[in-house]
Write a structure and sequence with these properties.
alpha+beta, four-stranded antiparallel beta sheet, three-stranded antiparallel beta sheet, 7 strands, glutamine amidotransferase, GATase_2_dom, Glutamine amidotransferase type-2 domain-containing protein
């Protein structure tokens, strides 16, 4: 599918596939390209994208991979896979990123939430 649209892959990384999905999308604003790409994925992931002006955090619809949001004393929003990481960078835990949720951090509007699928159901990973 992507190769038919001109994508050339240099690795066998699943991350490269996601980047190509984002690159071919014409959705606006830009973070909707990330949302659109992630809706096509199957499997487990927690990702944070750093765009030109706003970080975007994504957790898979089934919640296999953990992702939490915290805040530093200067107000900066941070994301981590474990709350103990927040302690290391002197950030305060705010909340879990919910399964199937995309969080967009905007200086003007704060943290915005978009759901990948309606009413995602968490599932446990056997590993």
């Amino acid at each position: 599918m992507l190769e038919d649209k001109g994508s050339i892959f240099n690795t066998s990384s699943d991350t490269e596939v996601i980047l190509h999905l984002i690159a071919i999308s014409k959705a606006r604003p830009f973070f909707f390209r990330i949302v659109k790409a992630c809706k096509k994925l199957e499997g487990a992931c927690s990702m944070v994208f750093v765009t030109e002006d706003k970080p975007v955090a994504v957790r898979d619809p089934y919640g296999f991979r953990p992702l939490v949001m915290g805040r530093r004393s200067n107000g900066a929003v941070v994301f981590a896979s474990e709350t103990c990481t927040l302690d290391l960078i002197e950030a305060t835990y705010e909340r879990e990123v919910y399964p199937g949720e995309v969080l967009v951090v905007d200086k003007k509007d704060g943290v915005q939430s978009v759901c990948l699928i309606p009413h995602p159901k968490p599932k446990q990973c056997i590993f």
